[in-house]
Automatic annotation (TrEMBL):
<dbReference type="InterPro" id="IPR014762">
    <property type="entry name" value="DNA_mismatch_repair_CS"/>
</dbReference>
<dbReference type="GO" id="GO:0005524">
    <property type="term" value="F:ATP binding"/>
</dbReference>
<dbReference type="InterPro" id="IPR037198">
    <property type="entry name" value="MutL_C_sf"/>
</dbReference>
<comment type="function">
    <text>This protein is involved in the repair of mismatches in DNA. It is required for dam-dependent methyl-directed DNA mismatch repair. May act as a 'molecular matchmaker', a protein that promotes the formation of a stable complex between two or more DNA-binding proteins in an ATP-dependent manner without itself being part of a final effector complex.</text>
</comment>
<dbReference type="InterPro" id="IPR036890">
    <property type="entry name" value="HATPase_C_sf"/>
</dbReference>
<feature type="compositionally biased region" description="Low complexity">
    <location>
        <begin position="497"/>
        <end position="521"/>
    </location>
</feature>
<dbReference type="InterPro" id="IPR020568">
    <property type="entry name" value="Ribosomal_Su5_D2-typ_SF"/>
</dbReference>
<dbReference type="Pfam" id="PF13589">
    <property type="entry name" value="HATPase_c_3"/>
</dbReference>
<feature type="region of interest" description="Disordered">
    <location>
        <begin position="377"/>
        <end position="540"/>
    </location>
</feature>
<feature type="domain" description="MutL C-terminal dimerisation">
    <location>
        <begin position="570"/>
        <end position="713"/>
    </location>
</feature>
<dbReference type="InterPro" id="IPR014721">
    <property type="entry name" value="Ribsml_uS5_D2-typ_fold_subgr"/>
</dbReference>
<keyword id="KW-0378">Hydrolase</keyword>
<protein>
    <recommendedName>
        <fullName>DNA mismatch repair protein MutL</fullName>
    </recommendedName>
</protein>
<dbReference type="InterPro" id="IPR042120">
    <property type="entry name" value="MutL_C_dimsub"/>
</dbReference>
<dbReference type="InterPro" id="IPR020667">
    <property type="entry name" value="DNA_mismatch_repair_MutL"/>
</dbReference>
<dbReference type="InterPro" id="IPR013507">
    <property type="entry name" value="DNA_mismatch_S5_2-like"/>
</dbReference>
<dbReference type="InterPro" id="IPR042121">
    <property type="entry name" value="MutL_C_regsub"/>
</dbReference>
Length: 757
């Protein structure tokens, strides 16, 4: 007697249910997708106890004809496929005809439908796959299906269900995806009477994003779009500072269907290249429309994975589209979360207590000009000296009381005086940060007397280099003149000279340099803590002009369609790590290591494009030892290293000799860089090509050649760093994706100090 037999319909449906109905979220997915295919404009979903007790889906779609109601619960019964050709142009979300019989086989299902507005409909009750009752009933147009006691007849399946909150999380997650895929449909989701999702169905995708992820996320989304002969793409991507720890917030819709595509996700991450920290992912909602013949959706049981016919073209289009959209943005994150609505500001007004008739100077006939002259020019006709110097050196003929009064007056003048051009040398700005003549960075300690941060007086001393005769009016002048002088300084931002020196030859090469910026404060120089070299020159705009001549012009930046990096005036340094700067828009903090790392990265990335021209042989080769397995694996990768200018030669045993490398490798770190390059090649499992190796090598070199934290910079060095940063292709993040600049707007600062309410 034969052993093979045909299973009956009931057992076959229960087996099929194991593939289609994995958990309550699978039921919601199949039922809601049927409602979407029916042309519904409103879909309501109600769940109880994580969907195990009840799942009810109600829509206002086309409904099902009375004679088709029972047939819909048979396996492979569908209205969406007529012939085999239709499988190559599927436009609906469902097409297999397996959902309803599989759901009904493991639950108690009640089904009510109507195709018109007459009020008459059809009702079916199905338990365990068997139709219990079938009758006419009153119903509005659309379909109302309730699934109760899911897995009641498969206790083994019910036993391994997760907690209610876990199952609810899967239900809500897929409902969010469907709402993002179809913003033209009004969705509602309720669980145990609590509303979890409600969209308006107005077709505004950004409004749905705000409803799903919150209004704060919606405000940080950037619109993207593009179109080709085969594809039409639209959607939103988040700013880089808004990111997640996993890919769950990346939603990809293909012809209205939510899918998971590793290729598309990889293209999205390439579009955010170096803008995101390691292992962080953006919030993305992309709608991809194409001819159904270009995509195969019948490759996964739950239809979550698809295959594209022209995948390379699609990947390239998405990557370029995201890069272009991000390139048009100023990607400086806010230090304080902006208010949802900027209210009318009320600024605290100043109150003047000055009375001219009570001014003793005016009574004596002393004018403001005479007062300034007496403060700044000694009676002996010698060069002007500050009050601090006169008191400290015991010079002048003032009494102690008069010196103290004059010192306080000068302090008040300095608080209003515009900054002067400093006397720092051009070399001081470049020596600690710049590579030497052949491109290597000198590993020297920075000048000890630079701007030592907020804890010292270096930055303040750099700005107070002029005499008191150049200062503004003291408190003793008539109030209108003092107020007008202060107001004019607030209206007109001060200008500062360009950087004294670029950070060496690589940064002035023109590949990504910076034009001299206007609108920044003057005041470079600063104390270097060492005697100036014989060829040191004063820090001046004329000296810097020739050095910056090769940098891009404004028209070049307009051709790139990139917004200008803000003009920033350094005002100090915090903990030897963060530069503090300002402009008319507000206050900025800059990570000095990340900024220098970005500058170096773009330089080395350009250099690694032509490494053979810079490769130099070594008089004394560097030995590198490996394990036997790594030695053999690296042998096949030697040509790849040669393409970036690194030449290794087998020396016997498990040792390679480094015979040559590019001369612009950071001095002192050559061996470490070559070792890390070899290690990365050996551990990279996804395949190594020249572009990946070029990027990785640039990152290694830039990190080792950059200034570190806890290094004090002089004002001239800060100026040079900001000038170089402003000319980078991406001045907003370091190669590892960390932000370089954080901003605080003037309004946000006033809010923190309660100057506006």
């Amino acid at each position: 007697m034969g052993k093979i037999r045909l299973l009956d319909e009931h057992i076959a449906n229960q087996i099929a249910a194991g593939e289609v109905v994995e958990r309550p979220a699978s039921v919601v997915k199949e039922l809601v997708e049927n409602s979407i295919d029916a042309g519904s404009s409103r879909i309501d979903v109600v769940a109880e106890e994580g969907g195990l007790q009840l799942i009810r889906v109600t829509d206002n779609g086309s409904g099902i004809e009375s004679e088709d109601c029972e047939l819909a619960f048979y396996r492979h019964a569908t209205s969406k496929i007529q012939s085999g050709k239709d499988l190559f142009s599927i436009r609906t979300l469902g097409f297999r005809g397996e959902a309803l019989p599989s759901i009904a086989a493991v639950s108690k299902t009640e089904f009510v439908t109507s195709t018109d507005g007459s009020g008459l409909g059809r009702k079916l009750a199905v338990e365990g796959g068997d139709v219990v009752t079938q009758e006419e009933t009153s119903a509005r147009k659309g379909t109302d299906i309730s699934v109760k006691e899911l897995f009641y007849n498969t206790p083994a399946r019910l036993k391994y269900m997760k907690t209610i909150q876990t199952e609810l999380g899967h239900i809500s997650d897929y409902m969010y995806r469907l709402a993002l895929a179809h913003p033209e449909i009004a969705f509602t989701l309720k669980h145990n009477g609590n509303s979890l999702l409600q969209t308006l169905g107005g077709g505004d995708l950004l409004q749905v994003i705000a409803g799903v992820y919150g209004s704060a996320v919606g405000k940080q989304m950037i619109a993207v779009g593009g179109e080709s002969l085969d594809y039409k793409i639209s959607g939103y991507i988040s700013r880089p500072e808004l990111n997640r720890a996993n890919r769950s917030a990346m939603s990809i819709m293909v012809n209205g269907r939510y899918v998971r595509s590793f290729a598309v996700q990889h293209a999205i991450m390439n579009g955010f290249h170096t803008l995101l920290p390691i292992n962080r992912f953006p919030v993305v909602v992309l709608h991809i429309e194409m001819d159904p013949s270009l995509v195969d959706v019948n490759v996964h049981p739950s239809k979550l994975e698809v295959r594209f016919s022209k995948e390379p073209e699609l990947v390239k289009m998405i990557e370029d589209m995201i890069k272009e959209a991000l390139g048009r943005q100023v990607l400086i994150p806010k230090g304080v979360q902006a208010s949802a609505r900027i209210k009318e500001s009320f600024v605290q007004e100043t109150m003047t207590l000055y009375r001219p008739e009570a001014d003793p100077l005016l009574k004596q006939g002393i004018t403001p000009a005479q007062w300034r002259e007496q403060l700044s020019v000694p009676e002996d006709g010698q060069a002007p000296a500050s009050a601090d110097n006169r008191e400290g050196a015991g010079e002048g003929r003032d009494t102690a009381q008069e010196a103290d009064e004059r010192r306080r007056s000068l302090a008040s003048l300095d608080s209003l005086a515009p900054p002067e051009s400093g006397a720092g040398s051009a070399g001081s700005a470049a020596e600690a940060l710049a590579p030497d003549g052949d491109g290597r960075r000198e590993q020297q300690p920075l000048a000890a007397g630079g701007a030592a941060g907020l804890s010292g007086r270096g930055a303040a001393d750099d700005r107070r280099t002029g005499s008191a005769s150049d200062a503004a009016v003291p408190d003793g002048v008539p109030a209108p003149a003092a107020q007008e002088a202060a107001a004019s300084r607030l209206r007109e931002p001060q200008s500062r000279p360009a950087a004294a020196e670029p950070y060496g030859a690589p940064y002035g090469s023109g590949a990504y340099g910076s034009q001299p910026r206007s609108g920044a404060a003057a005041g470079a120089g600063g104390r270097t803590g060492r005697a100036p070299a014989p060829d040191d020159r004063p820090y001046s705009r004329e000296a810097a002009g020739s050095l910056l001549a090769a940098l891009p012009t404004r028209s070049d930046k307009e051709a790139l369609k990139r917004p200008d990096f803000p003009s920033l005036s350094p005002i100090g340094q915090l903990h030897g790590t963060y530069l503090l700067a300002q402009n008319e828009a507000g206050f900025y903090m800059i990570d000095q290591h990340a900024a220098h790392e970005r500058i170096n990265y773009e330089y080395y990335y350009t250099k690694f494009g032509e490494p053979q021209e810079a490769s130099q042989e070594l008089l004394v080769p560097i030995p590198l030892e490996f394990t036997s397995a790594d030695f053999q694996a690296l042998r096949d990768k030697l040509p790849l290293l040669e393409q970036v200018g690194v030449y290794l030669e087998a020396f016997g045993g498990n040792t390679y000799l480094v015979r040559a490398y590019p001369h612009w490798f950071p001095a002192g770190d050559e061996q470490a860089i070559v070792e890390e390059m070899c290690e990365w090649i050996l551990t990279e499992r996804k395949g190594v090509d020249l572009s990946k190796l070029r990027e990785k090598s640039s990152t290694l070199c830039s990190c080792k050649a950059s200034i570190k934290a806890n290094q004090s910079l002089s004002t001239a060095e800060m100026e040079a760093l900001l000038d170089r940063l402003g000319g980078c292709g991406n001045p907003y993040t370091c190669p590892h994706g960390r932000p370089i600049v954080i901003s605080f707007s003037t309004y946000e600062l006033e809010k923190m100090f309660k100057r506006v309410m």
